[in-house]
Amino acid sequence: MEPFRQHTGLVVPLDRANVDTDAIIPKQFLKSIKRTGFGANAFDEWRYMDHGEPGMDNSKRSLNPNFVLNQSRYQGATILLTRKNFGCGSSREHAPWALQQFGFKVIIAPSYADIFFNNCYKNGLLPIVLSEVEVDHLFNIVAATNGLKLSVDLELQIVDVPNAETYKFQVEDSRKQSLLNGWDEIGRTLRHNEKIKAYEAARAVREPWIFNS
Amino acid sequence: MVSGKGADVAAHKYRATCIIIDSLPQSIDHMVNMPLTLYDKLWNAHLVHEEMDGTVLIYIDRHLVHEVTSPQAFEGLEINGRKLWRLKSIVATADHNVPTTSRAEGIADPTSRLQIETLDKNIEKFGVQDYFGMHDARQGIVHVIGPEQGATLPGMTVVCGDSHTSTHGAFAALAFGIGTSEVEHVMATQCLVARKSKSLLIRVEGKVGRGVTAKDIVLAIIGKIGTAGGTGHAIEFAGSAIRALSMEGRMTVCNLAIEAGARAGMVAADEKTIEYLKGRPFSPKGEMFARAATHWKTLHSDAGATFDRVVDLDAASITPQVTWGTSPEMVTSIDGTVPQPTKESDPVKREAMERALLYMGLNPGTPMAEIPIDKVFIGSCTNSRIEDLRAAAGVVRGRHIAANVKLAMVVAGSGLVKRQAEAEGLDKVFVAAGFEWREPGCSMCLGMNDDRLSPGERCASTSNRNFEGRQGAGGRTHLVSPEMAAAAAIAGRFADVRQIL
Lengths: 213, 501
Known about the structure:
Low-confidence stretches of chain B: 1-30
Shape of chain A: globular
CATH superfamily of the largest domain in chain A: Aconitase, domain 4
Oligomer: heterodimer
Mean pLDDT of chain A: 96
Number of strands of chain A: 7
CATH architecture of the largest domain in chain A: Alpha-Beta Barrel
Number of helices of chain B: 17
């Protein structure tokens, strides 16, 4: 995983609550057996006028001019500002893959669905939680300021609005270290392989049927 | 209705039990005086390692695998030269992409076919033994076949790259959905890096009325607490109305825990749990079963155990439910009407309601029972078990689907459910009523195969998500129980099943 330390980028506001992972990447694109190639189909049903299917030349499809990601002032956005319970629904990791491959590095919202939140960290995509009031405020600033860029510093746990306030955000230390260092989590867990084996041995005494069935 | 307790108490309780389990895991129940929740017991029994910040490694007993979320995980193992940690923990099947029409013809869609062929190859390459492939008589939806095979047992941790893994919590298991990176992590280490959730007790006391099912109970719960109401929590469903449910009904309730935002939902083990598991292929046998059952009987929350939050519902007040919008929390009673967004004070919610009504093609104030439907889908990991099919067949027996219903289909959850239903003659009841009787799989719950809604089509569906485009681009989904879906098929519009039974 690529380490994440700081990022400065253009913000796009997606003013909807409960954006589900079916909306982020529709099911027909889940048939891929690869980890890449999802960016062009992020928010497919909202982004394009026609119905998307795998294998289409997306550059030839007409874009929905009303969808915020298609508006010229937000082209090249790398920070997604959105509302509560973002990423609800299915566990598909294709959702953070699609967002990341679209170009997002950071998401800012008041809350996320648990599985999606977890999946973001596994891919070096930073989901920042700010309060509803702070998020509301950011929506107002973004609307009022063309080309607004925010700076995010994971080490310091801050979101910096140029010439204005700085917001502090919380992140669990283990998640932070993992992102800062771009750790291979499996490799780190395997350092405990003796402990895992010892657990299995003890458990097999307590509940042997677990290992027989 | 909602009561809380200090986070400090929870942290203290958690820490105390961790230290003990590290040294003497087998004696935990005797050494801790504090009453524990079912979730505490399951969590404590699976702790392998704890970091300073409270992050832990928890051990995973059962790993269910399907074709959609596993190819990248298998590939990751291969690239890094890693093996499966415990081969026997894996039970795999092909469910999302399989056709529900005749299997002999194979899969027409090349991308769907490739995904299933990739699973076939990975199973062979990694040596997985318990695979219920597309042509196996026991194939089915992963959340139906796990319990059916006895592969889901009380006291287990069960994971799968699928959010509806919460279903297995019906067996007093800690079961939750994971992403593909975590699928790979479990494959390679048999563990997950995890943090303990808060606990939420949902008590449903009393007796439900006639025609009110497990599905109505859980939709009413989601209507009450919202789709993010359980976020960050593990839910325990309890109370006399939950106890009264069959194992199938409990699975339906736990299945929808994720639609309330909770990764895990669970129900304490009891005699019904034990009875269900007797004689199943993966269940322990003979003396070992008796020993296991003794342990399983301890898998309940202790009297006096504290939860971070408690929500109470009165079973008698729950009516047959129908969703009207594009989120499972947008739900009302069959005798209700489409709500009026202008009455909503929260602007974000109001806008979501307006957008949902536009998408659903509904006007505020329309009685739910006057909304005509185009299609009916009885199936999915929520409602495709034998009891669901019996209940739906009970409604359609001797009747016929309405002329305006273009397609009504029944998709059994597994090959074994289908066979059982056929042995009981349920297939004939459905076919005589004008339903199509299909092969098992996820089918129109999410339409990864050819079973989809066309734009604008309205469906009475026993599935779990009414999101925009979920059952097909532009399709309009209304979530209901199997009995209510059957009643809608007969009436050609939503209908109160209590007036038909």
